[in-house]
């Protein structure tokens, strides 16, 4: 029976090539647009989701009396809070190179090296950076960057600097606003994935800045135990089951005791919401834009719906041509359920064919699309979360729904009337086409 349904469906497609081309191409373009947009949405929703400690990682924010928030904190505050707030398990301070200005990295222990690179995608980090955040290590001792004057390189940066030679143990010289400092390469980590808000090519030990001699006259504001200059990013790892609101209150109290003149308070933002807010009413600062994601979601669904509505319009408009076929089948003993299954099967065949063409279109357009949005997306993006399941379900349900109306309209014909051609003079289905056309516009 299934073989007969597929055979009839293929014959009808070949019998009406223009109709089939318009229907399939329309569905293919709609599905391709939906998949491309959904790729971006699934990528944005997956950002930072790979960290094992994610449920307990919080970004430390400052909030003034006007409700404005920012992510710069005094470096000495989180260290002091760790001593007094039992909810805090660990903390990690990050001083981003982009906020400190570019630096020049020279290879070897000479600052006049002929081989040097201007870098801005680097950071000074706490020695427990790789313990709190789940980035893949390639080579070296994870505890090594707890020591001053050490640096971890991403895999691509190590290759850029040293080629295929062993990078561990080599010396690089960093010249930035803190002066000229030598660092030993002790750790190589895999390039940080695209779906991460923390993305650095070089990670210098923050303990290097504990030595005031390495601050080059900036110790007034850059001291690691400073409590006034808010120039570092900070993350804290709370104890499992700890109350983040209570931790906020306690850290704020520590801050008030340390700097009574300041009226700013501490806010803890779950890292899971750092890229996209918890909801549209969430006023925490984020790296992405949740409103934009909702807007894109609506657009992608509307594009897909319009493609299906166009399919329904074309199918119901062509229903007249198949009226006699339905009448003859009913007269020869076909039940309505059999006819419904046949037409649903045809709809499913057309949608599946359109889906394969859409996937081919997406594959062909992927590199251009990635260049346009400045992201490295692929079908692997859907592996994060349940987005592949959601998208597949949406397409399957839509395919059945779009074909369902046509199937039930066609099978509702009275065989005696359709064989006499009476159906040609009725207005059945016209009202729905008018509604759908208006909705499309």
Describe the fold and architecture:
There is one protein chain. The protein is built from 14 helices and 13 strands. Strand 4 (103-107) and strand 5 form a beta hairpin. The protein has helices at residues 2-15, 17-46, 75-84, 97-100, 129-132, 155-162, 219-222, 244-258, 290-317, 323-331, 336-373, 387-410, 415-419, 430-440, and strands at residues 57-63, 69-70, 88-96, 103-107, 116-119, 122-125, 137-140, 150-154, 171-176, 179-189, 202-205, 233-238, 265-270. The two termini are 40 Å apart. Strands 1, 2, 3, 4, 5, 6, 7, 8, 9, 10, 11, 12 and 13 form a 13-stranded mixed beta sheet that branches. The radius of gyration is 31 Å and the shape is elongated. The mean pLDDT is 86. The chain is an alpha+beta fold and 441 residues long.
Give the total of beta strands.
13
Alpha-carbon distance between the two ends: 40 Å
% residues in beta strands: 15-25%
Oligomer: single chain
Outline the low-pLDDT stretches.
none
Q: What is the 3D shape?
A: elongated
Report the order of strands and helices: HHEEHEHEEEHEEHEEEHEHEHHHHHH
Question: Biggest sheet: strands, sense, closure?
Answer: 13 strands, mixed
Q: Classify the secondary structure makeup into a structural class.
A: alpha+beta
Question: Radius of gyration from the CA trace?
Answer: 31 Å
What is the average of the pLDDT values?
Answer: 86
The number of helical elements comes to 14
């Amino acid at each position: 029976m299934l073989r007969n349904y597929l055979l009839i469906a293929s014959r009808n497609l070949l019998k009406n090539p223009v109709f089939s081309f318009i229907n399939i191409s329309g569905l293919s373009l709609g599905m391709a647009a939906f998949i491309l947009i959904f790729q971006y949405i699934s990528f944005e929703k997956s950002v930072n989701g790979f960290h094992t400690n994610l449920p307990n990682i919080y970004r430390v924010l400052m909030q003034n009396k006007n409700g404005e928030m920012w992510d710069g904190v005094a470096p000495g505050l989180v260290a002091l809070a760790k001593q007094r707030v039992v909810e805090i398990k660990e903390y990690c301070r990050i001083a981003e190179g982009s906020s400190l200005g570019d630096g020049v990295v020279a290879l070897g222990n000479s600052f006049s090296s002929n081989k040097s690179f201007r870098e801005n995608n680097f950071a000074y980090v706490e020695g427990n950076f790789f313990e709190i955040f789940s980035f893949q290590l390639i080579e070296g001792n994870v505890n090594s960057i707890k020591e001053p004057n050490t640096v971890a390189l991403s895999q691509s940066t190590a290759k850029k600097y040293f080629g295929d030679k062993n990078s561990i143990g080599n010396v690089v010289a960093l010249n930035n606003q803190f002066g000229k400092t030598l660092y030993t390469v002790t750790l190589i980590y895999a390039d940080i994935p695209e779906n991460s808000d923390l993305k650095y090519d070089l990670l210098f030990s923050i303990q290097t800045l504990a030595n005031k001699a390495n601050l080059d006259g900036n110790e007034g504001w850059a001291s690691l135990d400073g409590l006034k200059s808010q120039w570092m990013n900070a993350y804290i790892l709370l104890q499992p089951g700890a109350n983040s609101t209570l931790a906020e209150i306690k850290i704020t109290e520590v801050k008030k005791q340390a700097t009574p003149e300041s009226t700013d308070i501490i806010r803890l933002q779950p890292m899971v919401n750092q890229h996209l807010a918890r909801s549209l009413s969430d006023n925490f600062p984020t790296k992405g834009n949740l409103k934009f994601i909702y807007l894109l979601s609506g657009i992608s669904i509307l594009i897909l719906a319009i493609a299906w509505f166009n399919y329904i319009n074309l199918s119901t408009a062509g229903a007249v041509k198949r009226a006699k076929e339905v009448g003859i089948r009913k007269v020869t003993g076909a039940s309505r359920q059999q006819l419904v299954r046949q037409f649903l099967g045809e709809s499913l065949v057309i949608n599946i064919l359109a889906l394969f063409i859409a996937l081919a279109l997406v594959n062909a357009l992927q590199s251009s699309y990635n260049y346009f949005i400045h992201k490295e997306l692929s079908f692997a993006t859907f592996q994060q979360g349940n987005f592949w399941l959601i998208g597949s379900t949406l397409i399957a349900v839509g395919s059945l729904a779009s074909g369902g109306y046509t199937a039930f309209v066609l099978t509702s014909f009275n065989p005696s009337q359709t064989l006499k051609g009476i159906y040609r003079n009725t207005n059945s289905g016209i009202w729905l086409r008018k509604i759908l056309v208006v909705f499309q516009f």
